Amino acid sequence: MRLAVRTVLGAALTGLVAACAGQPDLPAGGDEWSIEVVADGLENPWDVGVLPDGSLLVPENDGRLQLVSDGQTNEVNADLDDVDGTGEGGLMGLVLDPNFGDSNRFYTCQSTDADVRVVAWTLAADGTSAERDPEPLVSGIDRASSGRHSGCRLLFDDSGALLVSAGDAAVGSNPQDLGSLNGKVLRVDPQTGNPAEGNPGLERPEIYTYGHRNVQGLALQPGTGEVYAVEHGPDRDDEINLLSAGGNYGWNPDGDGSYDESVPMTDDQIDGAIPAIWSSGSPTVAASGAAFLDGSGWGDDEGLLAVACLKGARLLLIDVAADQGGEVRSVPGLEDDYGRLRAVVPSGDGSIYVTTSNGTDDKVLLVSP
């Protein structure tokens, strides 16, 4: 494995990507940012789980699980034979149980030839293998035969419930259909898979929010417990939404049985549709994973939402507290330098991990203030 270090100046955050008229400038940090390649030679790493000892558990989209530890990357022996990586499917989101230190339990979201499902695992003490639970924690999320809009990101909220983003499977009626799990964010008990306590009580009680297209990022805001969803949109728009129990986020591409992607991401003709807190407009950036910059080391940039972009091939910083998300800036050193970016995950010590998604020689980057 090759290791490399690049350093950029946080004060140089002048790469303006998008702005709305009248929005104030975002503050720029003055500290140096370090970009370090901690793993390479991967294929489409979708997520990162940070183990208590600092090792990383990394799912590769075509159905492999890697452990990155002490500068080495080794495949974890795990039963992933049912993973179907067609199109946008495969092995996707991964999250550690909040009690991982005691249980070694973690969760993956993956597509099979039948559906998209969440699987619970136990990692061996030496990290060389993982045993999956006999039954999926969540199943029955429909998938398109092409694999389009398979989701799927996982996140624990501050109550200990597990959030699961489920893409709409490119079926126009799914996002507004409360009898379908697709085009939704689900909220479940991580031990049983049952609807979590406090859910809004919709037709399918696992559903927490609906009216989504293909949520690719979920981020918990430190100090508030608020959860923000990053929506990968059609050519006209990407969005960031603040999730609210029972909320409808307005995606309704049902054009008399067709899948009409010319409609707005948030249809204001839907009664009660919740507007996005940030919209990219066109051209879009194919927004994906996200995490908040947490810790005083980030200087004035603390609290900004860092969003990975696939088509945009950059890391955006967004002030979710500002009107319409404020200005959007991109981080020097992560503007096309590493290609498509997929995941952003807090490291636990004030830094963030960012993964690339180019299909060959992909990397896990440690980005630090």
- Structural class comes to mainly beta
Arrangement of strands in the largest sheet: 1-3-29-28-27
Task: Please give the radius of gyration in angstroms.
Answer: 19 Å
Query: What is the H-and-E element order?
Result: EEEEEEEEHEEEEEEEEEEEEEEEEEEEEE
How far apart the termini lie comes to: 24 Å
Q: Provide the low-confidence segments as ranges.
A: 1-30
Helix content: under 10%
Compute the number of helices. 1
Mean pLDDT: 90
Strand segment tally: 29
The description of the largest β-sheet is: 5 strands, antiparallel
Large-scale geometry: globular
Strand content: 35-45%
Description:
There is one protein chain. The strands form 7 sheets. A 5-stranded antiparallel beta sheet has the order 1-3-29-28-27, with no helix packed on it. Strands 2-26-25-24-23 form a 5-stranded antiparallel beta sheet, with no helix packed on it. Strands 8, 9, 10, 11 and 12 form a 5-stranded antiparallel beta sheet that branches. Helices cover 1% and strands 38% of the residues. The chain is globular and about 55 Å long. The two termini are 24 Å apart. The protein is built from 1 helix and 29 strands. The longest helix is centred in the first third of the chain and has 4 residues. Strand 6 and strand 7 form a beta hairpin. With 369 residues, the chain is mainly β.
